[in-house]
Amino acid sequence: MTVLLFGLAVVFASCAALQKPTEANFKDPTITLESFMVTQYDGYWYYSSKIKPTKGTAGDHGAALPMSFLFNVTNPNPYPVLLDDFRFTVAFDKEFDLVTVVNQDSYWIPAGKTQQVRASTLITVRSGLLSLLVTGGFKLKAKGISAWDALEKWWVGVPDYSVPVTAHEGAATFRADGVTKTLAFKAEFP
Q1: What does pTM read for this prediction?
Q2: Over 90: is that where the pLDDT of 186 sits?
Q3: Domain count, the chain
Q4: Cβ atoms within 10 A of the Cβ of 48, count?
Q5: What is the predicted pLDDT for the residue at 190?
C-alpha cells in the first residue's frame, strides 16, 4: 500500500509540474524531412485515348509515381501538442509544382519528443501533365523544355534521387489546450 501511495504521489507531482499551454509559452515545433521514397516504380509511359487498349476503356493514361515522405516533428514544449492538419506542395526540380498533399490525421507529439509523420501521394503522368500545363507551362517554355521532356526526366530521375524533390508551401496546424498555431515549413530531398 505504501508503494502504491508513493507511486500516486509521484504521478500527481509530475502532473502538477506540467506547464499549462498559453500563447506566450508555446514554442514552435520543428518539421524536418527524414526521408523520401518512391514506393513502387513501373517506369515511364503514356498512351492517348486514340490507342485501343487490350482491356478496359480507352483514355489518356500514364505511369503512376507513388511517393512517401517521412517527416520528423519535434515538440520543444513541456506539454504535448496535437498535429491535426498537415499539407504541402510537391515540386520537382525545385520549381515545378505537381501535387498538393493533405494529411488530416491526428498525431499527438509528446512533450520534448519527436514523432514521425508519414504522408503519401500518387502522381500520374496525366495528372502531372495537366498540372504543368496549368501551373508550370510558362516556366518550361521560357527554358525551352517541352512538358513531355520534363515529365520523362522526372519519372526516370525521381526514383533514383537524381531529380530534387521539394516539399514546400507546407502548413502544419498544432493545438495544445486551446492554443492553436499554424506553422509554415519547407524541405528538400536530396
Answers
A1: 0.85
A2: yes
A3: 1
A4: 11
A5: 77
